[in-house]
Automatic annotation (TrEMBL):
Protein localization: Cell inner membrane
UniProt entry tagged with the keyword Thylakoid: no
Membrane topology: Multi-pass membrane protein
Organism lineage: Bacteria, Pseudomonadati, Pseudomonadota, Betaproteobacteria, Burkholderiales
Catalysed reactions, as listed in the record: ATP + protein L-histidine = ADP + protein N-phospho-L-histidine
Species in which this protein is naturally found: Massilia aurea
Name assigned to this protein: histidine kinase
SUPFAM superfamilies listed in its UniProt record: ATPase domain of HSP90 chaperone/DNA topoisomerase II/histidine kinase (SSF55874), CheY-like (SSF52172), HAMP domain-like (SSF158472), Homodimeric domain of signal transducing histidine kinase (SSF47384)
Enzyme's top EC category: transferase
Parts of the chain that traverse the membrane: 285-306
Length: 742
């Protein structure tokens, strides 16, 4: 009968042994923990009862001392000589002081507060009219135990005990007082034995200490902590745990010193909770140690009993599993298959290893094929770009040459503009295709600096302006007056904005409206490109930034594309730490594309002002230029363009001829193709640099290869500049202007 695999089944030795250990230890552990808790609670209850008795005893001892002082004052108040002459009064009080060693002074206070006589001679007159115990004795006409005082005459820590002196009519005529030494008050509780770390404190009505053990002298007159004082003033029916100023938690019990008519003092005794629970904790610790030892012995027995039957075989399974995880898919357990768990597990592990070995072989083959296909794809894209750019180069250069030679012929000029525009569009398609390939493989690196987004928008609008003019779009650039500082790659951000503007132009009918709004929102600069074009439905909005996604073509769309621009824009913005989004109210209602880029606190540097002659080939002085290209059309059209610009040009079609010509011609500028038939352009650049008088020549790569690795190889070979076909004549003019002698 098959059992459910999800249930826990006790059909193996190890599971049974471990379960027996758990069943044996669990009750003992529960009993040990509960017993320890009960012992701790019992210790606290016993200590609380003892504390209450000790505190009551200490309070009774102090109350007895204060009541004795009350009786002495009552007797003094009835002595007639107390109100007699000062000398007789002083002698009487001095005699009383000699017979009561716990006191430091006796005296008589007149109703105006002056001390008229004293057992201790007074050097200066003393007035105690401000003392609360004096005022209360007069007002309440009874015995008053005052708060802590540091004596003005005797300079000792004391409490003053006062009693009113009345005449025959019961009118208060004076107050007799006794100053009790606090050290003497403390002696009445010396016979109380307390555990280490405990404290015994007596506080007056204001919370000042008048008695303390241990170290009483250091604490006289100091206030007890606020939590302890609050407990002293509250009900005293139960003990409380309070943390002292020394950080020690103590269990405190409280008791009043006599009835309210005798004093307002409160006694407390606090015993550290750690001391109270120490015995219970030590007993519980011993129980836990015994439990741990029992557990160890039980586990040891289970291990010894199951070692041969279970552990060794499990170790073998673990070793084989680790070998398989490390890639040794030919590893096998060698354990015979049988009905018990380990045998079935070994068989399953061997079967898994065999299947993994087969799948790994298939995966390795597929991976090799995929890598080969990826490499072929990269090579194909690079070759495709090269082969597309090669025919575009002579077309573009020829158009610029015709425009240069026939600038007075409107039809030729218009035709040249059309050719140049279409060549630029085809070049843009090739660049987008290669850029998407590089971005998706993570090969794009950014050259970041602090930028002003307003300059980025201006440069992007300048790129798209011919297309906007051709379709008669009304374009508004709404930008803030202050710099919009971000950190990024100027060229790539221009590419992003140009793609968004170009997309809006493609899908907006002639005469439509396009608005670019740049504003700061929180910690980001936001660019919104809004058009009133064909719009999008909700499904297209969700995937508009995916590769090769396009809206339905309409008859008025004169500009096509491959569906790469928006995907490339999103990838470049995300590389800058930003985000993109799109929204549309629906078909025919226009669209809005949004770019968010993080703000940069530092102000962007002012954009350099271009020279009026920048990019103008006519402003360049005549140069000796060597053109090397195996594409005859490209070489001829470029040579004709350069000669029309006033330069002296030599043209060759292979690298070896170029070396011979350069040795005689001594060119100032060399325009070299990279893909030459005999030796490539990089090797040619190295050999040209080695010729006499050529170390300062300007070497410009003019090639159809645009990959980053191609640019890096050209730089290492000695090229000063790198241009991708078809050549931008304005950029070429700038480079020639730099090479022209001043």
């Amino acid at each position: 009968m098959n059992k459910s695999p999800g249930r826990f089944r006790l059909n193996s030795l190890r599971s049974r042994l471990m379960l027996l250990v758990l069943l044996a230890i669990t009750p003992i552990a529960i009993v040990t923990v509960l017993g320890g808790l009960r012992e701790r609670e019992a210790a606290i209850r016993a200590t609380e009862d003892n504390l209450k008795r000790l505190t009551a005893l200490a309070a009774a001892n102090e109350a007895q001392s204060i009541d004795r002082a009350r009786q002495i004052l009552v007797d003094l108040a009835s002595v007639p000589d107390l109100m007699g002459d000062t000398a007789g009064c002083n002698a009487l009080l001095a005699n009383v002081l000699d017979r009561n060693e716990l006191y430091v002074n006796f005296g008589l206070i007149q109703l105006n507060g002056d001390v008229s006589c004293s057992a201790v001679p007074m050097v200066h007159p003393v007035n105690l009219g401000d003392r609360s115990h004096f005022k209360r004795a007069v007002a309440e006409r009874r015995f008053i135990a005052g708060d802590y005082i540091f004596g003005r005459v005797i300079r000792r820590h004391t409490i003053n005990l006062t009693y009113p002196v009345t005449d025959r009519d019961g009118k208060v005529v004076a107050v007799v007082f006794a100053a009790m030494d606090l050290a003497g008050l403390d002696t009445f509780v010396n016979d109380i034995s307390l555990p280490a770390g405990s404290i015994l404190e007596t506080a007056d009505a204001s919370g000042k200490l008048i008695s303390r053990r241990p170290d009483p002298e250091r604490w006289f007159g100091k206030r007890v902590p606020a939590p302890l004082f609050a407990a002293m003033r509250g009900p005293h029916d139960s003990a409380r745990v309070i943390q002292g100023e020394d950080g020690v938690e103590r269990l405190h019990a409280f008791a009043r010193v006599g009835p309210p008519t005798l004093s307002d003092y409160t006694v407390t005794i606090g015993v550290p909770t750690e001391t109270i629970t120490r015995v219970a904790r030590e007993a519980q610790l011993m129980s836990l140690l015994g439990l741990g030892l029992t557990t160890i012995l039980a586990l040891l027995a289970a291990w010894l009993a199951g070692d041969k039957l279970i552990v060794r075989r499990v170790r073998k399974l673990m070793t084989v599993a680790r070998r398989i995880a490390a890639g040794e898919l030919d590893a096998r357990t060698g354990i015979g298959s049988n009905s018990e768990e380990i045998g079935r597990l070994a068989a399953a592990l061997d079967e898994m290893a065999e299947h993994l070995q087969q799948k790994e072989a298939q995966r390795s083959l597929a991976e090799r094929e995929l890598r080969a296909a990826d490499q072929r794809k990269d090579e194909f894209l690079a070759m495709l770009a090269h082969e597309l750019r090669n025919p575009l180069a002579p077309i573009s250069t020829g158009a610029h040459l015709l425009k240069l030679l026939h600038s007075d012929n409107a039809q030729i000029t218009q035709t040249c503009a059309i050719i140049a525009r279409q060549v630029e569009h085809m070049t843009s398609l090739v660049d987008d295709l290669l850029d998407v390939s590089r971005v998706t493989r993570g090969l794009v690196t950014l050259s970041t600096q602090i930028l002003d987004l307003r300059k980025v928008v201006d440069d992007a609008a300048e790129q798209i302006r011919p297309l906007m003019l051709a379709r008669r779009h009304k374009v508004v650039l709404d930008m803030p007056p202050e710099p919009a500082s971000v950190k990024g790659d100027h060229k790539r951000l221009v590419q992003v904005v140009a793609n968004l503007l170009g997309n809006a132009t493609k899908y907006t009918p002639e005469g439509g409206h396009i608005t670019l709004h740049l504003a700061q929102q929180a910690d980001a600069w936001v660019i919104d490109v809004t058009d009133d074009g064909i719009g999008m439905d909700a499904r297209l909005v969700e995937r508009v930034f995916d590769l090769f996604t396009q809206a339905e073509r309409t008859p008025d769309r004169s500009q096509g594309g491959l569906g790469l621009g928006l995907a490339l824009a999103r990838s470049l913005v995300e590389l800058h730490g930003g985000s993109v989004g799109a929204m549309s109210a629906g078909p025919g209602l226009g669209s809005t594309f949004t770019v968010r880029l993080p703000c940069f606190a530092q102000e962007a540097p002012a954009a350099p002002v271009a020279s009026p002659l920048a990019g103008s080939a006519s402003a360049v002085g005549p140069l000796r230029i060597l053109v090397v290209d195996d594409n005859l059309d490209a070489a001829h059209t470029l040579s004709l363009f350069l000669r029309a610009s006033g330069h002296t040009v030599e043209m060759v079609y292979c690298a070896l001829d170029a070396i011979d010509v350069a040795a005689v011609f001594k060119p100032q500028v060399c325009l070299l193709d990279i893909g030459l038939p005999d030796i490539d352009g990089n090797e040619l650049a190295r050999r040209l640099r080695a010729l006499p008088d050529m170390e300062n020549a300007t070497l410009i790569a003019a090639t159809g290869y645009g990959r980053q690795q191609d640019r890096e190889q050209a730089r290492q070979a000695g090229f000063d500049h790198y241009l991708v076909k078809p050549l931008n004549t304005l950029q070429l003019g700038d480079l020639l202007a730099q090479a022209s002698p001043q």
